[in-house]
């Protein structure tokens, strides 16, 4: 038996279960990492005896958000008007930004990950996947290890995408030479990380996802061997696909990227891809037929002026869509609440002439239920008995939210509730409450991170950080 916590007298609990149940004036009893029961007046029951009580009077409770695509290492290149993704072509952006990326060391990895994870937690995210493909001479093979340190310190549930780039620039890659590995190096480190961190059990806090960065910047053998390795070891796979690379892939291989990936087996219910805005309706059928998921990242699409993913059409075709922040080089923030709002607004604008948009509640389920499916986690994504106690609370006693609580399901994206949560719980542990990250000295970590940023990035690249 674990520690019991009784979350008492919530105004509404939006469960996101199969029946879309909303429990009003109800309690949640948590036992260790899992939800034991949900219902009214649990405080008087035998099962709640001895439980720590959290007063949730006036609170709206939601399942923890699940982020399915990010690049934590990019957090220290935010707010750079001199490298403005919105006003550059992708090649121009890569040419400038990778001058910084190739100088990153493992201290930058650690503190930039802490920064992104804190932002996620404060905005209701309880489980995060990060696509870590920045391996330089200065980081060595330590990035995922440093990220695991950061995740454990803050208490977030972490799926580490061990990325790589294996195609050298002389063969057509965009990657600097000191960010290129061999396929053997990559898979050897995946195996090391799998043995050290991967936990496939229910309520696990760590999992490993081999994730070659993108077909355009990797050798074909990297993807072929990744498929073999992951299927032998029961691991999921991820990559960037359908984000403008098809022209290159057609020149190089005579076929579009998804066809190339299907031929080598890099599709299936254990695979999801980021972005996919370049895919065609016929290719959506391939995704649906194979069970391959998509992480939709609305912020970089809007910032870069790329097509808006037609979520409703893709879902009707049978594609599982989840939600991602993407890296701070193309987002400048790590709030999945903000991504929900922006994503829903973009869908509403895009879909008016296409038979209607998805609802704000649909977007919440994309960020919860669909995220859990994407990560292969049937223990996450909704608030139900025997699922993980991953949740966040919003206080309804705020004047700016007055009059909006008749429909708590649609409230978040519809009304622009994008600020800090009042409480975030992961695996039955409160990690953020009343403006405080529990168990850490946030001011001290921030000061340490700022020193690392100054030493490794700001001072060596001062011309990028000079503002007139």
From TrEMBL:
Residues 61-431 form the Amidohydrolase-related domain. GO terms for molecular function: hydrolase activity, acting on carbon-nitrogen (but not peptide) bonds. It comes from Porcincola intestinalis. It holds the Pfam family Amidohydro_1. This is Amidohydrolase. Keywords: Hydrolase. Gene3D superfamilies: Metal-dependent hydrolases, Urease, subunit C, domain 1.
